[in-house]
Amino acid sequence: MLTYTIISGLLFGLFCSLMGIGLNLIFGVMRFVNLAHGDFLMLGAFGAYFAYTFWGLSPALALVVEIIVMIAIGALIYYAFVPRLLRSRDPEMLSLIFFFGISQIIQAIAVIAFSNNPRSIVWSALGSANYQVLGQGFQESWVVSALISAIVIALVYVYLYHTKIGYATRAVMGSQEEAASSGINVHRVSAIAMGIGLALASAAGTLSPFLLGSITPNMGSDITTTSFSIIIIGSLGNPLGTVLGGLIYGLSSMFMQSYVPSWANLVPYLLLFLILLFKPSGLLGKVVRHA
Amino acid sequence: MSPKSILVLEKIVKQFGQFRALDGVSLELSAGEILGLVGPNGSGKTTCINVIAGLYRPDEGNLYFQGSKITRHSLTHSAHMGINRTFQVPKPFKSLTVRENLVIADHYAKRPHPPLDELLEFVGLSSLADREAGSLNSSQQKLLDLARALATGPNLLLIDELAAGLNPSELDKVAEKVQYLAKSGIAILLVEHLLGFINSLTKRVIVMNAGREIFEGDLETAAKNPEVNAVYLGG
Questions:
Q1: Residue A39's CB: how many other CB atoms inside 10 A?
Q2: SS3 for B38?
């Protein structure tokens, strides 16, 4: 039981890391909390559902297509709205209202378009084998989802630490004014980060039917809360800290489900409470970021 | 406008709500010249730098750099054109190394500049090149900020309180560096509270108060000016 819980916690934790990393990237670059994060994840989930149901497209392939589409949508949303928000007197407060509005709009349209009925994708869509890890049996869909999450997170690492635009992104995270004074086009970098942030949310969304169960248009709010807990555990504004946050959340969640299942839903709130009480800057944080 | 002027400000006004931070400021600056900008807190010195650098857009007036009107430029455009600035409170990219901070500016600024190793040597940070910028003390961060600005190859350098917090021997070294930069042809606008430091660098100073210039000349003459005295001594 313990071995199973730890391994499933790590697999689930990798997915949770992917779930939160886009939210943290957007926060790190723009200091905005994307309250519609979970709704973009939900769109990714429905995208994978329809791609599989109607065209028989593998969720892994749908993930690649969704990433490309969402990068474009994210950049469009940025250029259409964010520069106006930034010119306002209180951009941070307005951004909360703006993304809350986006969240409500996406949910309302999704209910009209998809109805409130829960949907699911058969687990065999990501492989039907049963893997043995340390003597414990795991469905292939879980293992593949965790593997895909790890690959996408690794790509985020490569982007941030081994590309020119990644250096610029980290510079903008450090100081927008210093970055602009270094010749970096802060709007372009932020638009790309917004696109990547939404793309990562939708990528997690394509895997969510295999790890979170059935999908509905209203699933986004809970996911935003959970993602927020994950990034606070790691460190706000530090995308790779999200990996640590995700793994801790995944393990905690699996331990609770294994040993105290009726309390499992409290995990995000409990972790959030503990981290804010004992290390408000997050486990990898040096200082508290002011949003 | 003098043909030698690299920077010209014509009656620049900048308002924040009802507050006029700059109230018709005009000045000219030539290549290789050092102009000191002094005044009490809130007199508009840093706002003036922010407007020239492109952080704020002026509400009225015109701004010319190398003969071109640049009233609606941004910080990024300024860096590309050859205007750069240091910050009163530097915010280096703390998760990057000292060298990486300069590499960023080198990548994006698009202008010729001295090699990065030379710049690190110039500001005395060669031995710390591979350290995280966040681990530097505040005076080292100011020097890194200066090197970052120089890595964009500026013709006009706006220096905002570089000397604050430095000890006397560090002040002398920084003064030498600023003089060297001016001799190399860079026009320098220097905002500073340390009047002795500024006096050692230039005889041309503008004293500001409440967003307006109240005096232009050397500091010795400024000290005899009744309006300047009233501003500094409350007389």
A1: 28
A2: strand
End-to-end CA distance of chain B: 35
Q: How far is CA B132 from the centre of its chain?
A: 25
If one counts every other C-beta atom within 10 angstroms of the C-beta of residue B227, the result is 13
Q: Which residues of A touch B145 (CB under 8 A)?
A: 178
Residues B193-230 have pLDDT tens digits of 888 889 899 999 999 999 999 999 988 888 888 888 88
Residue B45 in contact with partner chain A when CB distance is under 8 A: no
Say if the Cβ atoms of B92 and A175 lie within 8 Å. yes
**Whole-model pTM above 0.90?**
no
Label residues A270-281 b or e (16+ Cβ within 10 Å = b). ebbeebeeeeeb
A128-150 pLDDT tens trace: 888 887 788 888 889 999 999 99
Please name the member of B53, B100, B110 whose beta carbon is closest to the beta carbon of A183.
B110
Kind and range of the H or E run holding B100:
helix B98-109
- Report chain A residues whose CB lies below 8 A from the CB of B75: 177, 180-181
**Cα A39 to Cα A36: distance, rounded to the nearest angstrom:** 5
Chain B residues with beta carbon closer than 8 angstroms to that of A180? 74-76, 79
d(CA A251, CA B173): 55
Integer Cα distance of A113 and B57 in angstroms: 45
Question: CB-based contact (8 Å) between B53 and chain A?
Answer: yes
A113, burial (CB in 10 Å: exposed 0-12, middle 13-18, buried 19+):
exposed
Q: Cβ separation of A177 and B87 shorter than 8 Å? A: yes
Distance CA A22, CA A70 (A): 12
Number of residue pairs across A and B with CB atoms under 8 Å? 76
d(CA A227, CA B19): 42
The answer to whether B81 and B65 have CB atoms below 8 angstroms apart is: yes
What CATH number does the domain located at B1-81+188-235 have?
A: 3.40.50.300
Q: ipTM score here?
A: 0.86
* Domain boundary assignment for chain A: 2-123+137-278
Does B33 contact chain A (CB < 8 Å)?
Answer: no
The DSSP output letter for A263 is: G
What is the C-alpha separation between A143 and A131, in angstroms, rounded? 8
- Upper half-sphere CA count for residue A197 (Cβ side, 13 Å): 35
Which CATH code for domain A2-123+137-278? 1.10.3470
B90: left (phi over 0), alpha (psi -120 to 50) or beta: beta
Say if residues A116 and A218 touch (Cβ distance below 8 Å).
yes
Res A82 pLDDT > 50: yes
What is the pLDDT at residue A287? 52
- Judge whether B141 is closer than 8 Å to chain A, CB to CB: no
In the sheet that holds B60-65, the strands lie side by side as B19-30, B5-16, B60-65, B68-69
